[in-house]
Amino acid sequence: MRFATLLVDDREQAAVACHGDQWAPLDLVDPALAGDLLVLIEQQRPPGELAELARLAARLPAGRLVAAGEAVYRPPYRRPRKIWGIGLNYGDHAADLHESTPDQPASFIKGSHTIIGAGDDIVIPRQSRRTTTEAELGLVIGRDTAEVGRARALDHVFGVCAVLDQTAEDILALNPRYLTRSKNFPTFFSFGPEIVTLDEFLAGRELTDVEIATRVDDVDIRRDVVGNMTHSPAELVGFHSAMMPFFPGDVISTGTPGAGVVTPGVLAEAHVDGLLPLTNQVRAQGAPR
What Pfam families does the database record attribute to this sequence (predicted)? Predict the structure, then answer.
């Protein structure tokens, strides 16, 4: 199943895809689901209940549905408990930065204030003269999770999404201990426009075959497949769940095949096979929208 948060009647509303190219607002099926998708994810509904919810939504009158071509996407949600980012998870990207690939995941946390969604502007902060964008596969945790083994780790994933993770690279270059600072400016975490449940996303294919591409102004910066990650998605879930618990809606951004420098006026893009593209225009801080 495919879920998104849309702007409907001037308010953000969770929706599920139906009839191929339409979205059904979920509050029309269950009033408790008014608002963003975090409400639904936190309920930890089993797959059968999610499927039934989607079936009921598909029966709504046509006039209550939103055509995909007319949809205005918002961030899927704005207040996850945690956002984990993973650095240097592809060998080629580590080489770009003249770094070696770490034996254990090199991770950092981003605050929810960094969140934007599809169509929002990425804002280059005044402090930075070299900001980059990085396309990544995002894992959305669906269950309370602690000390889960790698074999069962993906059972705790609700779904996947596209991510654009931004870095003030010039600030990071000053000192490697400035990683948190370089990653946590407002607008430095875009995700969406949809979250797709893992079963649908993987139907008929292996996660290792999924390709992720970073693009800037329609130019491919780098593309690679999940199978070339140093630390697999299952390993990332298991490793971090041994450190601290995950909660429904927490996000793991699994690392990028390559980063592209962005400047005011360009379009940053994350392309993940099987997901809608995630695109964000770039502007300078203080510039008009």
Answer: FAA_hydrolase
In a shared domain, residues 93 and 69: no
Asked if residue 59 and residue 100 are part of one domain, the reply reads: no
pTM of the full structure: 0.94
Separation of alpha carbons 267 and 221, rounded Å = 13
Q: If we measure between CA atoms, which residue out of 101, 121, 114, 90 comes closest to residue 221?
A: 90
The tokens for 126 are 């005044």
User: What's the rounded Cα separation, in Å, for the pair 259 and 2?
Assistant: 27
> What is the distance between the alpha carbons of residues 2 and 216, in angstroms, rounded to a whole number?
26
Half-sphere exposure of 74 (CA within 13 A, CB side): 16
> What is the residue range of 222's domain?
83-284
Cα gap 247→99, rounded to integer Å: 32
Q: What is the pLDDT of residues 34-47, one digit of tens each?
A: 989 999 999 999 98
* Residue bearing tokens 């008929």: 204
Tokens of 18: 């139906």
Q: What was the pLDDT predicted at 56?
A: 93
